[in-house]
Amino acid sequence: MGSMTLKGQGPGPLPPLLEQYVELRDAYPDYLLLFQVGDFYEAFGEDAERLSRALNLTLTHKTAKDFTTPMAGIPVRSVDVHLEKLLKLGFRVAVADQVELAEEADKLVRREVTQLLTPGTILRENLLKPEANYLAAISTGDGYGLALLDVSTGEFRGSVLYSKSALYDELFRFRPAEVLLAPELYHHPAFLQEFQRRFPVMLSEEGFQDEVGKTALHKQFDPLPAGLEHPALLRSAGAVLAYALRVQENGLPQVRSFVRYDPGAFMQLSEATLRTLEIFEPSFVGDRSEERTLLGVLGLTRTAPGRRLLRAWLRHPLVEEAPLQARLDAVEALVKDGVLRAEVRKVLYRMHDLERLAARLLAGRASPRDLAALQRSLALLPELAGLLAGVGPLFSLSERLPQPVAVAEQIAAALVEDPPLKITDGGLIREGFDPELDELRQRAEEGRAWIARLEGEAREKTGIPNLKVGYNAVFGYYLEVTRPHYALVPKDWRALQTLKDRMRFSTPELKEQERKILQAETEAIKREYAVFLELREQVAQAADEVRQAAQVLAELDVYAALAEAAVEYGYSRPRFSRDGTLQIVAGRHPVVERSSPFIPNDLSMSPAARLLILTGPNMAGKSTYLRQTALIALLAQVGSFVPAESATLPLFDRIYTRIGASDDIAGGRSTFMVEMDELAGILQGATSKSLVLLDEIGRGTSTYDGLALAWAACEYLHDQVRAYTLFATHYFELTALPLRMAAARNAHVAAKEEAGGLVFYHQVLPGPASQSYGLEVARLAGLPQAVLQRARSVLDSLEASQKGLSKEILEELLQLDLARTSPLEALLFLRRLQDQLRGLAPQEAEAERLSQV
Ligand SMILES: Nc1ncnc2c1ncn2[C@@H]1O[C@H](COP(=O)(O)OP(=O)(O)OP(=O)(O)O)[C@@H](O)[C@H]1O
């Protein structure tokens, strides 16, 4: 319990309302408490300040006798919007509702915390994005145990990672909304700092206390699922579950299994690769538009589960050929049959998010509308299965597609067509479904019919021609008589209300009928509620089937989306080579080509030609070429068609990219440090089956250091690692590498200097570039003339002083035939080289030597 204090001013005691607030607030110390006061959720004191800052709300003050404290509030009716923002900002929120009616004005009503919300455990549909929403936990002990839980679908999985960088890469793929760290990590300042920098999400060490995790696991699963034998994984899985159970107090019946997966079964994609390839998000900070990402271009799915699956496939490409061919077969079938594709996508468009629906069903939280949506979706399944049945590669989908027809029929028989959202207001259940309900409704109906007849009968009996029967909320049913006819009102009528020119009456019979109607109606609503709960429970029996249907549909949706993209954008089916051949004909960058005309380019590599040195002026298109190569390889291993006329590729185990400068100023690391860090990771991790893309390595330091590092890295990749490497560089010196390395080649991106300046062809051709056009690009960018002129003269003198140094010396060395060189000749040759390297002309060199004698 807290200290019962509230930031404020004045000597007075806390008023009772605030005392109640402080008590609840202190019971949930790590949460931001939203405290219902009538139509508003309020926060007070410091929390009011936090809330107003977070949501940009006006800060007011709550004032009592001799006491005042800051106050901020949000209207109850728009709470969802604000909750969504708070969760996104990483808050945990406790919602305290008034749980009794305010009967007297001054009485303090009871309030209780009715909901806990944290970013990683959201179940409420209107607070969720279509994307998966993961809660992650990490602990150590013979590697890192990583557990991930998506409460909204029940997906529960985990893995063991054996290095910190592998852990980060994996986390970066899943992008958890909230992370629990075991105490040994949470209290490790260096780790915590680095972690927070990389993943600015809600962090805590909760769920790891003593045995709560184990207890939670044993309660959830009996026996424990396989895969939890690893101690660190067991701890993390337990923590995730315990934490989620604390928030979702009604339990997590939607969590039915745990899957331990092996990251080695997928292509490794480092965090840098996911970023630089702009698969999910544009890397340019100022640009948040998703269109500029691979997902933005390919994301033609029509259902939420399909969208989540596409994301999952993109972040975990496969490394085995057989399943990829199966995916490609399915995509191809839908590419070839445009009518089928259109039909399938049309049906999918009408499907609801069955995956989350199944989770809500299991959690006992499905609303009448959920069931109606389920029914409509299930009713589409036979049609879909029919569409797929005749199509070879899609046949297995149709076979795996369950047909819970009985459930759909049951819902259709029980539920009205367009049910209300709430289950407590009645109007849910069809006539003729439940005899008891029908009877209650019948009774109410009889009462209403009696009242309907009453008007005519009473007019006749009393002779009051304009007598009316009416209803209002305060008095119930009444008979209304206007002033001129007051004398005709029978004695036994009881006056209810007198208005200006009319009076309202009741009779014992009317009251009796009214009571009957009311009672029948109340009971009917109760009965409807019970019937609905029963229906929901029965439907929940089919939740596993619904979930499986959702999975099959998601897969179909992804195939159809990939096929749609393939047709729409002119992609072709990739082939996989066994001998390591890589042959891309007319490859394109899938995202860049969407927004501007694009020049396709070829690429040809093999184990015998696996290092490509790519030169060319700035802006020529070097990094675009590197990126498109990576994207084509990635798409192929997702099972998608690729943006190329044709493409044959080896199956890569990893894609590494080191492209563009990514500063990490917040993390206190220079551009160069980040670059070297990433390079180190690549050189350590890459294998002969990896695709490595390096752009201007060594740029961040002095020219010679940079050149030397670039050179050495190339050599290492060529000789030791033997990875497929594309190396884009401005160091012209590196174009000499192919002279010395058997499997290295030169290529350049063509540009030509013309009268008007530099013309870019964006065309990749064999051989090195003729020169670097840095100054020309600078001129295009509009650098002042004076600066350009000065740069030109500096460049001239630099070039003069280096003249002959690299190219000529290398040439001479290479041409020297040692078998025919005497020791003296060799010595003289060496001296001449040394003089040249020192930058001395022959006469100067002679003079210097004489002076030394
Ligand atoms: N094949 C292509 N067809 C059409 N436009 C292209 C092509 N390749 C690149 N571009 C365009 O040219 C511009 C420069 O491309 P890119 O960034 O790849 O050049 P770069 O050679 O890597 O430059 P720098 O050396 O300055 O990094 C981009 O705007 C890109 O859209």
Task: Describe the protein.
By secondary structure, the chain is α/β, with parallel strands linked by helices. β26 and β27 form a beta hairpin. The longest helix has 33 residues, at 508-540. The termini are far apart. The model has no long low-confidence stretch (mean pLDDT 86).
Give the SSE layout.
Layout: H1 16-27, E1 32-37, E2 40-44, H2 45-55, E3 60-64, E4 67-75, H3 79-88, E5 93-98, E6 111-117, E7 135-140, E8 144-150, E9 155-161, H4 164-174, E10 178-181, H5 183-186, H6 189-198, E11 202-204, H7 212-220, H8 231-247, E12 259-260, E13 268-269, H9 271-276, H10 294-298, H11 304-315, H12 321-336, H13 338-349, H14 354-362, H15 368-389, H16 392-400, H17 405-414, H18 435-462, E14 468-472, E15 476-482, E16 494-498, E17 502-506, H19 508-540, H20 543-569, E18 575-576, E19 582-587, H21 592-595, E20 601-605, E21 611-615, H22 622-638, E22 646-649, E23 654-658, H23 671-685, E24 690-695, H24 703-721, E25 724-728, H25 737-740, E26 744-754, E27 757-766, H26 774-780, H27 785-802, H28 807-815, H29 823-838, H30 842-852
Parallel strand pairs: 1-5, 7-10, 9-12, 10-11, 13-23, 18-22, 21-25, 21-26, 23-24, 24-25
Antiparallel strand pairs: 1-2, 2-4, 3-4, 5-6, 7-8, 8-9, 14-15, 15-17, 16-17, 19-20, 19-22, 26-27
Keywords: ATP-binding, DNA damage, DNA repair, DNA-binding, Nucleotide-binding
InterPro entries: DNA_mismatch_repair_MutS, DNA_mismatch_repair_MutS-lik_N, DNA_mismatch_repair_MutS/MSH, DNA_mismatch_repair_MutS_C, DNA_mismatch_repair_MutS_clamp, DNA_mismatch_repair_MutS_core, DNA_mismatch_repair_MutS_N, DNA_mismatch_repair_MutS_sf
Family: Belongs to the DNA mismatch repair MutS family.
